[in-house]
């Protein structure tokens, strides 16, 4: 039986299709998954008008799935991500 600590944290990357910063964040997260247990999904804000209003020019934005907390935007901020992991564990 899995305990709550065994369930990986899930993040959402809000981005856009033609966004080089988005691709950089996705690549950095993919590499980090080799060291840290977490999941992430990518959502293209251009398919969701309400997300364009929220995140528009801020993409990419890394948000926690569970509580919708923004961890960082534009670039993967490792200090902010480490602080989030420390806070929840």
Automatic annotation (TrEMBL):
<dbReference type="InterPro" id="IPR036249">
    <property type="entry name" value="Thioredoxin-like_sf"/>
</dbReference>
<protein>
    <submittedName>
        <fullName>Glutaredoxin-like domain</fullName>
    </submittedName>
</protein>
<dbReference type="InterPro" id="IPR008554">
    <property type="entry name" value="Glutaredoxin-like"/>
</dbReference>
<dbReference type="Pfam" id="PF05768">
    <property type="entry name" value="Glrx-like"/>
</dbReference>
């Amino acid at each position: 039986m899995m305990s709550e600590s065994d369930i990986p944290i899930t993040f959402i990357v809000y981005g856009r299709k033609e966004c080089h910063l988005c691709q950089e964040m996705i690549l950095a997260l993919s590499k980090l998954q080799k060291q840290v247990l977490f999941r992430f999904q990518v959502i293209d804000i251009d398919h969701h008008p309400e997300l364009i209003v929220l995140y528009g020019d801020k993409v990419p934005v890394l948000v926690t799935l569970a509580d919708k907390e923004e961890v960082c935007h534009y670039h993967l901020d490792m200090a902010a991500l480490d602080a989030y992991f420390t806070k929840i564990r």
